[in-house]
Amino acid sequence: MHFGAFNFGALVACTALALPQLVLGGGTGLLKDVRKDIDALPSYTADEQDYILSQAALVLDVFGNRDIKLQAFGKSVDPVPKINSIRASAKNNTFQKVQFDTANAFSALRDLHTVYGFGRPHQCGTVLMPFALTLVSADLDDDDKRMAFDIRERYDIDNPQCVVDNFSQYKTTYLSLAAADATLTATVETIKQGDLLLTYNGKTFNQLLKELEPIVGGSSIAATRRWVIDYLTVRSGFLYQYPREDNVQLTFKRSSGEVYNVTLPWVASSDPLCIFQAPGTVIPVTDGGKVATPITVPKRTMAQINAEIDKYVPMLKSLGLTKETALQLISRNLTKYSNPVTVGKLRRTDFKPTTQSNSRNVNGLSYVPSDIDPKLQWTIYRPEDLKIGVLRITDFSSATSSPDIDLFVRAGKALLTTVLADTNGLIIDLRDNPGGFVTRADYFPQLFSPLLNFDAAFACVRKTKVNDAIWKTDNTEIGLAYKKLTDKDIDKYTDYSLAKYSERTGFNSYGTAYIKPVALLTNGRCFSACDFFSTAMQDNGLAIVVGEDTNTGGGGASTVRHDSFFQISYPSLFPQPLPYAETVTTAFIQGVRTKRSRGSLIENRGVTADFVVRPTISDIRGAFNAPRTQQFDAISNLLIRRAKNANLLNTTFLIEDRAAKSYEFIARPGNPPEINGTVSGIDSIFLYNEKNILVGVKLLAPTATKQRFSIKPIFQIVKPGFTNLTVQAWKFGRPIATSIRYFRVIPPLSSYFALAANTTTRLSPVINNQNVIVYNKKTGAGDGWKNVDGILQVGNGTVYANNIDTTVSFFVKAPAGTDESYFLNIAFDVTFDLENSFDFVYFTVVSNDDDSTANELIRLTGSGNLDPLTVFSVPFAKVYEIQLRVSSDENLAQTGVKLNSISVKFSQPEPPQPEPEQPVEPGTTDPVTTGRTSSV
Q1: CA 230 to CA 232: how far, in whole Å?
Q2: SS3 state at 751
Q3: pLDDT of residue 146
Q4: What is the pLDDT of residues 541-594, one digit of tens each?
Q5: pLDDT, tens digit (0-9, with 9 covering 90-100), for 639-671
Q6: Mean pLDDT lowest for which of 701-705, 896-900, 923-927?
Q7: Whether the predicted pLDDT of 906 surpasses 80
Q8: Taking a C-beta distance cutoff of 8 angstroms, is the pair 369, 316 a contact?
Q9: Cα dihedral: 22, 27, 32, 35 (round 10)
């Protein structure tokens, strides 16, 4: 079970940074014209208000950052007493005042993991201006460029200038939403990229910063500045009140020195799917919390929605939805918010952003996404005759509910050892990265560690009544640490040294992929998992931190939500959903730094930059030799100096990797595995086995010219299974890289089970290390696949183990005389009971002993059965490996997986056969019908 952060801060960041989606709902147009559609709150009953407040207080009972927030901002921000006070006086106040006071109680904490999201229809809209703003420094002089550019003492770091950014992108969206006439279009066109903001509604940026700080939050001053500049141009009704004024008066200064004024209207974009699900009666928002007259909006029936939805089909398509899918979502949510939700176990994790990714061209550089994981993007920056790699991590989320750690790290390793391998240094661009899974952030830094001694953040939680219910049966490191607290320890924290955020065994499971100097480029929007990644890199001495701000966002916790965790997992305390999709989230598990910063909290502080350098005004205006920028030139100069000082400029260490779908190399008994690669500037290579015993040495001439090398261990592989070798490169008497290579030892071809053509074979469940082999990766033999009473299973029938990765493989070969007209047809009879969305059983076929052909037939999660009448057909190959892999994470309450039988038939396609009327007993009749195939 994952406690990784995709925190609510991620949603805030993406909302603020990504272009709003062009949605043509009832609340789209000038804000003054559509305010009635979105600037309203539900007409709550007294019971509904009371339930929201009581549930908010319970959620906040587990607020992990309570102590540090009270220390930083005073006891007055303690949220639970505030919420209880609002609840006690609610009957004497308007609905509006209660709602806004509740939101303010959360925002006063300056914790973007801990928020209150308004109900419908208020949450359904976003308002925006035709530009974004960013912070800049004055142009760098020659000394700044040549020297270490530690310019934290410069006046403009603490008194930043705000300029127009992303104008061409935002302008198009704004004018489209506004259906702008010629006058508004001409007004917008007077603004230019890089124009300096002097005043906003008559106030300077520093005045606005002081005024808006309590509203926008932000754990650090750096984060607050960034959230303020977003709030000035993009505002979501989910989190904030809509502007009371319809227009904004702006004063700008051009590069020529000309000062000019413009007045621009707010433009609104809304989501009709959200508005369709708003309550039937709403109360418009008014100034001062005065009582407003309720507006009755007839609640649409599904029949009415079905009749209306056709005009929204283009918008739905832009959101990746079909009409049918949209109707299903609306129907499901209309039911969800009028009836108790079905109770079932759900994860303790964070959720994904609901807006598009914030990836964009930066500084005129064109980024190329990884073809393995598009969260990683790369480019080459070329100052003069140098090559600086740039690796942009947009966020640490994944495309699924699982963190897909191997996919993410493998994608990074592939880029670092190919397109970025021959660079002189690397910039990891983390600007505006809102977070994601902490496990991704914890495992990725090892790719830059010269030794297998990387360490990631610790974790701790606070002793409370609600936490007692959560952790009493938990047997993870955090749960075991919690059990050491007694009833007298209320509000105390667990001993952080006892628990890690992520599974320790994964911290050093890949090894070095890049050996040149690394700089992290951060800003105040680098938040949550981005904070974890940055602290890990800094604490392990793997990179210098160059910030556009003095600190990162300072979000050092994971998040849990009322709806997706508390209300589903603990229904006795949280029996109903909140009335109109209101959202209550809280920071849950605190992150604690390691190594040189051991014991320091990440919250509020984040990472302090070693050097601070913002883009200059010329960079934003494109006036400095684009696509080069003064900012990137300065960072590049620093990296080159560090590479020269460490004598790494002409050093290379690349080990050949698999281009396949697996990191594992294939080997056979009797043949020592061979490792090949390319080096320069390396004087020796050492090879160690899985017990860390030296099994090979290679001495080299440390020339600047690249040379190939090959090294084998001085032992023979005896039997199938997993093994690994560690390769370490040395230069001038010190290790500069350590990499691990995994080998999956498969049986000799003579041991493969020979199939007969057109005959159904029920494969034996006996694990024999010849043609039925179990591969346990970091998994004890008792926790992996095993034969119990003639059935292969994972688990003991009551529970299965945490953090396992176990595969049972069946090795078969095609009958003699068959050709490509034949198919291998496979039927599985499997019973599974796994933690939904986090633990999986994968059914895969590998053809001809080549993992690049790995064909995943299906993956299952949750509970159920795979019907043995479901047949999977695989194209012809000479040999096959049929794999059933089970992976788990932490904190399990399910029973595992049973492979009741597996039947195969090697045959040519036949006409479809009729379905049997009744299921048959396995083994009594051919369970494989070759005409009934599912897509592979």
Answers
A1: 5
A2: helix
A3: 42
A4: 999 999 999 999 999 999 999 988 888 888 889 988 898 889 999 999 999 999
A5: 999 999 999 999 999 988 765 455 678 888 888
A6: 923-927
A7: yes
A8: no
A9: -140
Q: What is the rounded distance in angstroms from the CA atom of residue 6 to the CA atom of residue 10?
A: 6
Positive or negative torsion for Cα 22, 28, 30, 32: negative
Q: 37 pLDDT exceeds 90?
A: no
26, 30, 33, 34 alpha-carbon torsion, rounded to 10°: 30
Looking at the DSSP assignment, which residues form a beta bridge with residue 583? 117
* Reported pTM: 0.85
Cα four-point dihedral sign 483, 601, 890, 568: positive
Instruction: For 573-641, give the DSSP string.
Output: TS-S--TTS-EEEEEEEEEE--GGGTT-B-TTT--B-SEE-PPBHHHHHT-SSTT--HHHHHHHHHHHH
What's the pLDDT band for 21 if we cut at 50, 70, 90?
very low
Alpha carbons 266 and 17: distance in angstroms, whole number: 17
| Calpha distance 475→355 (Å, rounded) | 35
Owner of token pair 């040149």:
516
Give the mean pLDDT of 285-310: 59
In the numeric block, the tokens 């793997």 are attached to: 542
Q: Which residue has the tokens 């709550």?
A: 44
pLDDT of residue 157: 64
Residue 17 has pLDDT above 70, yes or no: no
HSE toward the beta carbon, residue 750, CA cutoff 13 A: 2
CA 125 to CA 273: how far, in whole Å?
11
285-320 b/e (C-beta count within 10 Å ≥ 16 → b)? beeebeebeeeebeebeeeebeeebeebeebbeeee
Q: Is the peptide bond before 713 cis (omega within 30 degrees of 0)?
A: no
